[in-house]
Amino acid sequence: MAQRILIVGSCAAGKSTLGTALAARLGLPLVHLDQHYWRPGWVEPSTEEWRGQVAGLVAAERWVMDGNYGGTLDLRLPRADLIVLLDQPRRRTLYRAIRRRVLRDRVDQLDGSPERITWGFLKWIWDYPVRGRRILLDRIAEHAPDTPFARLRGPREVADWLAAQPESARK
């Protein structure tokens, strides 16, 4: 069983939702990168501070980690035993982003940083299948070419994949 699982994909693809369920099922510690990155009021850390923080997080022997943050993929990918790409359709991710803003039902809600929607954020989600996915796949090929990889393209695939994971006695 993988001990360090990295979940990546577009914003609002369900990374944190899957991460929460997977960590509980496998009895692994959960790391939501958004909760470590953002400071209250959506303040970003410096690049050096963030890379140092991520280096500390990935040094742990066991984790399920969800989040993108392309500037630290070189630190995270080589440490992962399994990479899960949530490759959801853009209409689903756009819907989920708007829904979680309206309902305020984000799984990894950030203290002091209420969910927000901007045109730039929506454009990033819309463009992800064309640009973001290619960059991510290139980084995986560069930093973790031999790491097992699951590419889940819809809610049914996610549910089936999760159900197929062994439950841990460590819970």
From TrEMBL:
The keyword Phosphoprotein does not apply. InterPro entries: Cytidylate_Kinase-2, P-loop_NTPase. SUPFAM superfamilies: P-loop containing nucleoside triphosphate hydrolases. GO terms for molecular function: kinase activity. The keyword Transmembrane does not apply. Transmembrane segments: none annotated. Keywords: Kinase, Transferase. PANTHER family: TOXIN (PTHR37816:SF1), YALI0E33011P (PTHR37816). This is Adenylate kinase family enzyme.
